[in-house]
Amino acid sequence: MDYNTEKNNKVYICGEIVSEATFSHEVYGEGFYELFVKVMRLSGQADILPVTVSERLIKGGELKPGSILSAVGQFRSYNKLEGGRSRLMLTVFVRELVQETGDRNPNSVVLSGYICKPPVYRTTPFNREIADLLLAVNRAYNKSDYIPCIAWGRNARFVQNLKVGDRVALSGRIQSREYQKRLSDTETVTMTAYEVSVSKLAAFDEGESFDVDDAFDLYALPGSE
């Protein structure tokens, strides 16, 4: 296995910017901005994804609502304090803006990491099999991103047998999902969760030779959803 952290976490998205870029934070004098991008699915539904981009890549205000963002980067996590509690936040961190082409899947992610919580397997009322897993993906400088993923059908049955510490690689798409959170007996609020919907998955031993680039094509054309 190539342990180059650049291979552990790769994302390509292409979609319409649907919000203004707002300042997020600064690192070593470099400012970063947040915005949201709408990426269409084959079904006609859309995922509204959070994106973080450096001020270096925003040239003359080109990233405006209605324009198209085509970018490669990583799907990253960070903790944010809300109401005295830590909440896991997720964002597509843009490393490079690239030319839009029609032969790429507009929403692709490839991850390689470790299972860090026991997977949760369940079935829906319509007997669809689902498994939730949380993947710890190593990043440079001894950091890690914690990415929630969801597997379906045959992949879900496979995932339920994985253990904490098992190493896996997977590919899929980043999806957004709204849900209701109850604040009190009379008040609820709509929240948005982000996760990777897994289309392909493989587990391998620590010492096993496994090349993520050979096994998963980041730019593969989308298949059925």
Give a structural overview:
The chain has helices at 5-8, 153-159, 212-215, and strands spanning 9-17, 22-27, 30-40, 46-54, 68-82, 85-97, 107-115, 120-123, 129-139, 143-152, 167-182, 188-204. Strands 1, 2, 3, 4, 5, 6, 7, 8, 9, 10, 11 and 12 form a 12-stranded mixed beta sheet that branches. The mean pLDDT is 90. The chain starts with a helix and ends in a 10-residue tail after the last helix. It has 3 helices and 12 strands. By secondary structure, it is mainly beta. It has 2 domains: 6-106, OB fold (Dihydrolipoamide Acetyltransferase, E2P), CATH 2.40.50.140; 109-215, Nucleic acid-binding proteins (OB fold (Dihydrolipoamide Acetyltransferase, E2P), Beta Barrel), CATH 2.40.50.140.
In short:
With 225 residues, the protein is mainly beta. The protein is built from three helices and twelve strands.
Name its key features:
225 residues, mainly beta, OB fold (Dihydrolipoamide Acetyltransferase, E2P), twelve-stranded mixed beta sheet
Topology:
Elements: H1 5-8, E1 9-17, E2 22-27, E3 30-40, E4 46-54, E5 68-82, E6 85-97, E7 107-115, E8 120-123, E9 129-139, E10 143-152, H2 153-159, E11 167-182, E12 188-204, H3 212-215
Parallel strand pairs: 4-6, 10-12
Antiparallel strand pairs: 1-3, 1-5, 1-7, 2-3, 3-4, 5-6, 7-9, 7-11, 8-9, 9-10, 11-12
